[in-house]
Amino acid sequence: MDCRILLCNTYHLGHRPGHQRVKAAGGLHKMMNWNRSILTDSGGFQMVSLSKLMTVDENGVNFESPHTGEMMALPPEKSIEIQQALGADIMMQLDHVIHVLTTGDIVKEAMHRSIRWLDRCQVAHTRDDQAMFPILQGGLNLELRKECAEEMAKRAKVGIAIGGLSGGEEKDHFWKVVAACCAALPSHLPRYVMGVGFPVDLVICSLLGADMFDCVYPTRTARFGTAMVRRGGLMQLNQKRYKEDFLPIDDKCKCNTCQNYTRAYIHSVIGKETVGCHLVSVHNIKHQLDLMRDVRRAIQSNSVEKFLNQFLSDYYGPIQDETVEQSSQIVRDVPRWVRDAVDHMGYKLDF
Amino acid sequence: MVKFTIEKKTLLGRLGKIDTWGSVEVNHQTPSCMTYLRAGHIPHLTWEVAATQLRLEQTPIYQMTLPSLVTQAKIIEKFGKGAPKFCGIPASSAIHLTPFDPLGKLPGGYNDSKSVAIWTPNGKVSLDVKTWRSIINSFGCESFETLVDYDTPRDAGQKKLLKAVERTRTFHEQLFQQDEKVKGERIVTLGGGFSKYHRRKCAMEVGLAEETSAYSVEFREFSEGKEVDEKEIVELLEETFSPLPPTKLRYIAGPFNPKTILFLIKNGIDLFDSSFPVKLADEGHAFCLADDYPTSSNFEIVDFNNQKFADDFTTPFAGCECYTCKKYTKGYLQHLLNTHELLASILLVIHNITEYDRMFKLIRKSLENSEGI
């Protein structure tokens, strides 16, 4: 499948087996037998999302461990110490994450604090075989985002991330923030939009100028029996309609699952045998890798508009089915924000 | 046909070779085991993983178990290309179809004169001869087993035992007396429970037909976890096989540990299945044969759920050549089990099946070096 980079979750690894144990095992690559690239997050995001009692002060994030109930502190130095023990190729700075819908002075404070924490992370960063990415903050305020981009770009050495999104904000705000950040950043730094996402988000963000993404969605949804498909978006294989459907998930997909299995077989094992999870996970990861490959090809060959028309009409069209003539199908409404983003980039949709 | 030849008989068991399984050339030496399948897969392994990471000593003979597929039987029939293809099994594999899952539950009291009960996650399915025939034909495996009334516990009375033998005989007759031909090699299942008399009677009632390719002995009451009396097993097997032609392949399904396997081989059994290693993996356990196996019958079972392995980053079993032992550590297996990751089962199944496969290789080697009788 040629997958090149994995994201490993610092918070979960810090809890089990513990970062000292990962270090004793020889680092993440060795422990999990993966000799390609790995990125670790700062661990801060899960503390915000999983901890009921979370406070932030200048020292760092303070949170109640959901496991022991103890109050714990995670200063930027500690986050880097943990990530250096894990030994990923790319580490992330600890940033001050606030909920994306927060407004007022706190947004600005969190942005400035994230810059100060970036400096502390860089002091704590002692291993020279690991890169560290800063994380842009600034909520939905485009001015703050711009200011943050300017400050952090000065400090970034290898790449930079756009954080604080994918938290339930309006899509209309989401794409505009990505667009503004990409416009404000120098072109030599790879831009990583954290926690994105769904196929349409990947396509739009890539065309707006983003380069890297991460999301648990493809494998998480696979375990519940949902396959990602270019034609129709999502295929919930546990539905009765697939019981006697002898087509592969996607007859154009070259993944091992689509080459060897029918929707009917996968339907029959979902929730019963672990191979059901594995088969759909393989397909979904291949789907994401193929999609990004096609985006790269479209950019390389100057055929982005053609690609967008095909991709969006497929994505918002029906699921491929033996009984329906593909060419005569109605395309569901393409969301307003997608049309706006496409317009913004100067492309035209034929439908 | 199942072309089987006994190459050597020793006091420790018989050494044989299966040249073909149905139409598939396998050149598979015995004693050995079929590879246990559930839902048409080695549990937890996709066929891609099985093909790339599980290296077995011989061309496998797969044991396709029905309970995980029986609710799909109509759909597989409609599919029209057979159950192996439906389940994504590599083409041209040798596959045997059995109505029972050696790791499934099989409570007593549910068989009747027309059917035997098998159990799915959604409950009981009564399998009658007509349904079984149509499943055999639509699944299209190389071989199948005849139905047996397995409900013969230790406390079964004469009447119950006799009825069980009667039913087994009737199921056998009905399966073949119809106009519709049953496709595939016939492996005749022999029952009779704990009674020497009924073991012999059942063998004589169903085992003498010329078309019989091999024998399967119904032996679930003696599998892993049950209390076994070795003398009793010797006598029951003797009564079962003495009236039958001695050169046919003998197979027993079910999870058996390395010690019991040695004992059953000594008593003339040629073929088993790999449900034991899968059962261990499902419990988070891995096993390893003693260095002097099969001179001794010792083996060790390691429970990787145990926290004591958390800081042990050495190979699970030194000397084991499997993917798991080459690439991962005890501590990582412990971590995967501790966090309920699906990868734990994958890695444990790979190790355990590899070790079980190696066990049979060691046994065959010791038979080769033993004196013939």
TrEMBL record, chain A:
Keywords: Glycosyltransferase, Metal-binding, Transferase, tRNA processing, Zinc. It is an enzyme of class 2 (transferase). GO terms for molecular function: metal ion binding; tRNA-guanosine(34) queuine transglycosylase activity. GO terms for biological process: tRNA modification. The keyword Zinc applies. One of its GO terms (cellular component) is cytosol. Its EC number is 2.4.2.64. InterPro entries: TGT, TGT-like_sf, tRNA_ribo_trans-like. It comes from the Eukaryota. SUPFAM superfamilies: tRNA-guanine transglycosylase (SSF51713). The keyword Secreted does not apply. Residues 2-316 form the tRNA-guanine(15) transglycosylase-like domain. NCBIfam families: Q_tRNA_tgt, tgt_general. This is tRNA-guanosine(34) queuine transglycosylase. It comes from Caenorhabditis tropicalis.
From TrEMBL, chain B:
Binds 1 zinc ion per subunit. Zn(2+) binds at residues 320, 322, 325, 351. One of its GO terms (cellular component) is cytoplasm. Keywords: Cytoplasm, Metal-binding, tRNA processing, Zinc. Residues 13-369 form the tRNA-guanine(15) transglycosylase-like domain. Heterodimer of a catalytic subunit and an accessory subunit. Non-catalytic subunit of the queuine tRNA-ribosyltransferase (TGT) that catalyzes the base-exchange of a guanine (G) residue with queuine (Q) at position 34 (anticodon wobble position) in tRNAs with GU(N) anticodons (tRNA-Asp, -Asn, -His and -Tyr), resulting in the hypermodified nucleoside queuosine (7-(((4,5-cis-dihydroxy-2-cyclopenten-1-yl)amino)methyl)-7-deazaguanosine). This is Queuine tRNA-ribosyltransferase accessory subunit 2.
